[in-house]
Amino acid sequence: MKRHRSIALAVATAAVLTGLVGCGALDKAMDCVKTADAIATSVDKLQQAVSTASNDPTQIEEALNDINTEMGNLKNTTDNADLSKAVDDLTKGVETVRTAVKNGDATPDIKPITDAATEIGKVCTPG
Length: 127
Prior knowledge:
Layout: H1 2-21, H2 23-51, H3 58-75, H4 81-102, H5 111-124
């Protein structure tokens, strides 16, 4: 019984200290995870838009805009070098696809975008 009380006290103390000291870091980590998930959703939409571009080419542009919005949110969540590189890679990929679409390519190569989004997911996933 005494051992359980000690463990409970230690856990409670750790939780309080984390709340006092690491709240900002925890909030940033959670924002990173949420934003990475939003980027993954936007990339899925982009993949669908590219596969059905002949039906509605504006969907590609909308998906690219969604990715840009989420990247803007993500840049504010961390100063992690790996994440910054992945965001830069994603930005370059989005611009390359945007240019290709503007030049008439209805099925642009989105692999650089999917690769960078995967890397963002890895960097933002705790553990």
